[in-house]
Amino acid sequence: KDVTKNYLQTSFNLEIKPSDCLLVTGSNGSGKTTLLRLILGFTKPDHGIITICKKLKIGYLPEKAELPLFTTALDYLLMIAKIKKVELDIKMLNELNIPLFKKINHLSKGNHQRVAIAATLIGKSDLIILDEPLSGLDRKTTNALIRIIKKMMENNQSFIISSHSPNAFKKLATNFLELWSIIFLITFFIKELEY
After folding, report:
1. Residues whose CB falls within 8 Å of the CB of residue 25, separated by 6 or more in sequence, listed in order
2. Is 166 exposed, middle or buried (0-12, 13-18, 19+ CB in 10 A)?
3. Distance from the Cα of residue 119 to its chain's centroid
4. Distance between CA atoms of 178 and 67, rounded to whole angstroms?
5. For residue 137, what is the DSSP state?
6. Which is nearest to 79 in space by CA: 70, 92, 90, 88?
7. d(CA 116, CA 124)
8. Other C-beta atoms lying within 10 Å of the C-beta of residue 30
9. pTM for the structure as a whole
10. How far apart are the first and last CA of the chain?
């Protein structure tokens, strides 16, 4: 409620409910990642209040996920499942077409992203925050991810998705937030004056 970060030049009023999907988009520097970091508690707001329900389980995919390089994708995902005290969802891994027996340091950018997405989606998080999840993904994997998210939303799981490709998620979105950076607006205004 009325959350502000002084360098963003904007305030946020958001409420995320079960089965919601908030789609956040905007130009570089507009505050998308800062908004996610505020929600996660990694960054403190200068003003306003962020209220998180007690015992809320949050899954988070950062824009650039760091994974252990010298283990196989399967061993890493088994470790994540063990930490979260759940069974590994083999059906989801097959849908994402993850090369399970390759070491992570031998994976392409797209396969690296698939492993990071799977690690985030494992378990029963109440809220899942995805920062640029489509980076390096092909159309087939994008469609698989959308199907998985839709199914999870039907099970009362909520999502916040920050993306430069909002059209991919528009059918899932229950709310839409578009952020604009001051630099972008100044540039746009100057270009308009030139015409």
Report:
1. 32, 162, 163, 164, 166, 176, 177, 178, 179
2. middle
3. 12
4. 30
5. -
6. 88
7. 16
8. 22
9. 0.85
10. 40
Residue corresponding to tokens 């690296």: 112
Tokens of 109: 């950018």
SS3 27: coil
Can you tell me the distance from the alpha carbon of 80 to that of 28, in angstroms, rounded to the nearest whole number?
Answer: 31
Residues 6+ apart with CB under 8 A from 86: 122, 123, 124
Q: State pLDDT tens for residues 102-150.
A: 999 999 999 999 999 999 999 999 999 999 999 999 999 999 999 999 9
Strands (E), 33-137: 58-61, 127-131
Question: Cα dist. 25→36, 60, 68, 134, 195 in Å?
Answer: 12, 17, 29, 13, 27
The span from the CA of 11 to the CA of 4, in Å, is 4
Look up tokens 């630099």; give the residue. 183
Rounded Cα gap, residues 60 and 159, in angstroms = 10
